[in-house]
Amino acid sequence: MRRVDLFKEENIRSRTTGPNMTDSSLLNSELELQQQEELYQQLLLQTMGKLQTPTSDSKSIRPLPGMCVKTFTEPGKEKVFINICQSGSVPPPPELSREALVDLLQSEDPSGYRVPMSLGEPHIEMDNGSQSCTAYDVVINQDFFQKCQEDPLFQQFVILVSAEGLENKYQLELSRDWKVLKNRKFLGSLSEQNIRTKSRPIIQVLQPQEGSTASCKRPKFRLLVEPPTGDPENLIAEIELPGVRSSRSLLLDVGEDRLVLTARPSLFQLDIFHPFLVDQENAVAQFNTQTQVLTVTMPVVSS
Fold first, then answer.
1. Angle between helices 142-150 and 152-170 (to 10 degrees)
2. Spatial separation of the C-alpha atoms in residues 83 and 117, rounded to whole Å
């Protein structure tokens, strides 16, 4: 998670720079007070376990071994191993026959069929030649994994989907000349992973939901995709915060697929997973003091 601690604050009384335009400037007053408040909120969130422990939308699993796929990066030819693991906690993809899979692979947009999977962080391992290499753990549904073991076409399909998922998440380019290792089900050691207990939403605009905590309300919000058609470039969160007068009372953390917002003192709290992988380092937040709406713009890395 990345702390977004510099907000642009819009005020209707700012000088105008053109028709219907306002001049926005970074907050530069009471910086010391702001830093103290942010430190307080950070410690509070850590104490409450909001960021370090799985939320109600996720849980920790330990996957079972499956199969190990050897490939290389392009163009550097660095050795990469993909541990395709299995777990009953990962939801299965929609039912798909072999004939439907053939039609899907021959279609113009095979990405319309998605396989739920958890993509783990890279870890450095040693291969049989005592050379360092990179391994990734990919977890899919246990029943779907068995189906892939029984049919070579499904096996190649799930390897392709896993490779594309890693490429999108980690900005890789992997060779399609891969090899399934016969006598090895995984390389290195399998670590626990956090997975969603709720599936990613299919629609691109989310409606607000009612809060369930007594001390903090869940604010109304919506997620928008920009542009609305074609490949998404930005994911925009618009969060309504009535009663909040300044961004100094806000604490915002943006992760690659998660957003956590807290408004002091005990006004609002929002903790959501969003349907895209985003560039958290370049996320920008802007608070409008007139409308009391926080807008968070997050560049999309992968859908």
1. 130
2. 12
